[in-house]
Amino acid sequence: MSFSDARKVRGLYRAEVASARRISPNFVRVTLAGDDLERLPRHGFDHWVRLFLPHPSGARTDFSSLPETFGVGGYVKYLRQKSDSRPVVRSYTIRAQRAREIDIDFVAHGDEGPAGSWAQRATAGEPVALIDQGRGFDLPDDAGFHLLVGDESALPAVLCILRDLPADATGLAIVEVPHIADAQDVVMPEGVELRWLVRSNPKTIPGRLALQELRDFSPPDPETVAAFIVGEQALATGGRRHLVSLGTPKPQIEFTGFWRVGRAAG
Hints:
266 residues, alpha/beta, Elongation Factor Tu (Ef-tu), domain 3, Rossmann fold, 2 domains, seven-stranded antiparallel sheet, FNR_nucleotide-bd, NADPH-dependent ferric siderophore reductase, contains FAD-binding and SIP domains
């Protein structure tokens, strides 16, 4: 299912924070729990949700009037809530799913973005809600080579896709992170290479290292590449443009700009 098909998925689920812990210099893992999550489908790969979080002011947040879907109608219903009590909503990949529990990894450095800031101070028992959005990654039957590229905002999605690829898959994954300790272990097919790029210079624009690594790489047969390029907007659009120039058909390239430089991502 592509990102554009996500509006077809229905389901509002209520949960609460079970725990929150920093797992690396720039990531906080929040575990959400609740009876509703027992009926949450397991889509695998980059299964993502619209996550509704407490209002950043600390005031009472109204979770009672949320929509069941987040298409145009659902978004309008969300906006009709009073702004001073309306939950913050952001999109996140489910990093791990168990009975009645899910893990979500937040990019969290400083006070950038309401979601990342919330994750750093989240406490057990805080209420949240989420809408199931299915998955954005399509697994082509005839893919000859998988190419996954992203910055830290895409790390959970890329690693979950690697985890769920067929055992005989071949390909390359490029993930750019701010610190080497942000790299995570992942079980993946032996035929797929994972390259971690560390953005050691704080002045380097996020996504630029990953985009250059992609431009320097020559896939064995561009026409059989199945690509997934997500992260900062320039990385996503620049990566797609590069692959198209090599001869990769546009329908075989999933690309999404999760955020833009100069705008808080979460």
